[in-house]
Amino acid sequence: MTLSSLGLASPVPEWRGGGFAGAWRFDSGRGEWTADADVAGAMGLPTRCALRDVLAVIDPADRARVRSALEGAALSGGRLHRRFKLVGGPAAGSWVRLSGLSEGGIVSGALIDLPGEGQRMDSWRDAEQRFRHAFDQTPTTAVQGYDRQRRVIYWNAASEALYGWRRDEALGRLLEELIIPPPMRAEVIRPHTAWVEHDQAIPAGELELQRKDGSPVPVFSSHVLLRNGWGEPEMYCIDVDLREQRQAMNEGLQREQRLQLLSQVSHAGWWEWDGVSQRLRWSSEIGRWLGLTAGGEGSLRTLLARLEPSTREQWLTSLGRLHANGGAVDLELHHRQGDRERHYLLHAEPVDPELPTRRVGTLLDITESKEAASRIDRLAHFDATTGLPNRVLMRERLAEALARGQREGAKLVVGAIGLDQFRLVNESFGMAAGDALLSACAQRLEGRLRAQDLVVRLSGDQFGVLMAGMASEAEAETLAQKLLATFDQPFTLGEQEIFLTASLGLAVSPDDGHEPEALLQHAETALHRAKEQGRGHHQFFRSEMNQRSLERVQLINRLRRALEGQELSLHVQPQVLLSSGQLKGAEALLRWQSPQFGAVPPDRFIPLAEDSGLIEPIGDWVLARSCDILRDWQAAGHSQLTLSANLSARQFRGRHLVDKVAAEIERCAISPSSLVLEVTESVLLDRDGRTRDLLFGLKDLGLRLAIDDFGTGYSSLSYLRRFPVDILKIDRAFVRDLGQDADADALVRAIASMAQALKLTVVAEGVETAEQAALLKALDCEFGQGWLFGRPVPSHEFGQRFLGVDAPAS
Question: Which pTM does this prediction carry?
Answer without folding.
Answer: 0.39
